[in-house]
Amino acid sequence: MILLAAHFVLCVAAFYCAAVCLYLLVVTVAAYGLRSHPRVPAEFPSCAVVIPAHNEASQIGRTLKYLGRSNYPGNLFEVYVIADNCDDNTAEIVRAAGATALEREDRENPGKGQALDWCFHNHTGILREHPVTVIIDADSMVDPNFLAAITARLLESNVDAVQGNNSVANPLEHWRTALTGASFALVNCVRPAGLTRLGASAGLKGNGMAFRSALLAHRGWPAHSIVEDVEFGVRLLLEGHRTVFGLDARISSDMPAGTRQADAQRRRWEFGRFQVARRYVPALLRAMRADGVSPYMGAFMELIVPPLSVLVLLEGVCLALSLFVHPIWTTLFTAFIATTVLHVVLGLHYCRMPKRVWLALAAAPLFLLWKLGVYAGLVVTRGQKGWVRTQRDGELKAEDAGDPPTEDSDA
Predict the structure, then answer these.
(1) Among 253-262, 309-318, 378-387, which range has the highest average pLDDT?
(2) In what order do the strands lie in the sheet with 161-168?
(3) Beta bridge partners of residue 353, listed in sequence order
(4) Residue 64, Cβ neighbours under 10 Å: how many?
(5) CATH 3.90.550.10 residue ranges in the chain?
(6) Predicted pLDDT of residue 265
(7) Residues 46/124, Cβ–Cβ less than 8 Å
(8) What CATH number should be reported for the domain whose range is 47-261?
């Protein structure tokens, strides 16, 4: 009876791992068909850069300086910062830098999605005046060519939404930021690139998104979950709007190296993904039954693919169990682990990750133990109760944000 139960568990796990590994391999190989091809718009449209910010006095000045270095006509883009429930002088810093501060006070409804929705419904003139709307985070390091590259991609025919190439700015600071950098490379670059190459929707990744303003004028920002970006990307797809990936629209931000900050951020990401998957996987299945599998398969797989650390843990546990059951299972799960490793190797090579990130893969067991602690915390607290801002390393160090790095800087 125990042996039969073990066979059943391994059969279910093998079916799931086979689907996930095949998906990861296909999108990784497909990504190699999408190469860097810097573009500029044939005609630069007027662009609104919207930045949700909650108590970002230590970061917003640096982000505005990065935007000021953009290779985009200065008279054709305007920056709007949503000072959302701020207790600091974020709004004053924004105005002193020459940008527009939109102050929102609603303590009962905090969150990035709620702030964006408020902005698009209460400041409709922004969307009327600017045909393109770009959304970035308040701690972003914006590449000089970001606005031109993402706008050029957006103005291609039949494109209503673009996700930029969102990466980690400080992968060499700590083993945790190095592995987060590797994760961002795979999730925010390789998979969207492969999906775009295959004609599927790349989805939204939160930082560095661009939309035709008419799309937002019609909808606002109706996604109010903890991971509002993922939710809105799925909603757009269900409404018939595909998101494409802008490989050359590069934007980055620092990831926390400290355990306390990283724990809070991961809890938000992981629990938020679970909430969105629980809500939208059934909707995607219904859409596949009604309209066919092809348009929705990429989004469906993105919601059911677990974090890589969880996938490796599942494969490892099943491999260990298979040693006591039957050699066929051992062969299968060894193949799954090899496919996962191949996905990582090909993906990091595609993104040209620095050597120290590759070396940091040796710390993957520590990363896995840390992630298990994060998941245990989610179980104990029964999930994250709402949006919580991640404290910045710079705030903990009480350092001034400073000027943007020069062109030959490692940043």
Answers:
(1) 309-318
(2) 100-104, 77-84, 47-53, 132-135, 209-212, 161-168, 243-253, 140-142
(3) none
(4) 22
(5) 47-261
(6) 61
(7) no
(8) 3.90.550.10
